[in-house]
Please model this.
Amino acid sequence: MPLQSAYIVAARRTAIGRIGGLHRSRRIEDLCAPLVGAALQDSGLAADRIDELIVGNATEGGNPGRLIALAAGLPETTPAATIDRQCASGLDAIVAAMRAVSLGQSQAVVAGAAEAISMAPWRVAKPRNLQQLPRFLSFEPGSGEEREGPAHLESSEALAARLGITRADQDAYTLRSYLKAEQAREAKRFVGEIAPLRSNAEEARDQSSVTPDFKELAQLAPYLSPDGTLTPGNTSTLHDGAAVAVVVSQSVWSSLGKPRGLRLLAHATRGTSPSDEAAAPIEAMQKLKADFGGYKASEIAVVEMSESSAAQAIALARSLDLDEDIINPDGGAIARGHPFAAASSVLVARLFTRLARSETKGRALGIATLGVAGGMGTAALFEAV
Model:
């Protein structure tokens, strides 16, 4: 059977909230189900037209996709699945949906990710003997045992040292990211992208995107050592949030009047040493370009990246000769927070706003990329249609 095109015709996200903040009392289905409804309303499709729901999640356990599908009012006969590739889970879910549609297995799929970390179950390590007490585990892969390689902070610090990225470079990037987010909010570029879960102003803006003072940034103590460059100010932190997209076949897209949307051109995931985790998005971007047959940097209108640190974003721009202005033009994860598995589906919602909601002229290409806990990077190339 020949492959058919798959189109993203709607994409929505919640405001991103601090852990214990905006979404502190929302279970994962309470966080994501209203988002599914908003995206379906945007698409013009009824719930009974959806063949499947696929979500990414890294903290809940079980199959929260099924809970979200039922809470969103999808028919009980609609199957649901949950994917976990850590931070890449949301993008993986959307790519899986587009592949299912391209193969003709489905005509319409809702896909994305949700992280309700504030309400997620605690992870507790089983004692090895009767004398040992249980201990809480983080969400990092392999956190129950000693790590062989450094975590993302050590990896970003090593990357910064290797490329000569200074503390001042990182703080300046951080301040620009916050200012971009503030300008985007004032220009109302998040209207239509963020679906408020309640009718108040707090639900329509990312909770952490409050521009800091540059002097305050410079005074923050480094995480790892007195001469380190990574601080709580120039790195991103885990947040609650969700983002979903509606993916349809060419025939459904035509029946909807061929609305503006996104089409996936290429997708690449690359593994690296855990000690080189911060550089993994660079590896993924290089693989993406090689797999797609090459594209000019000038053809890329926007790169949306959920960066773990300013050093990682600066390294991406320098290593791939990208104009730093096209990376997160409305602010990145440093400004809005990083909702773990949902971070990558937030990137798709951001690309939808930048490429599909706006009236771009000519061919408009955009890339979503990020690093993945455990030493992986992922990247996807989309085209506005």
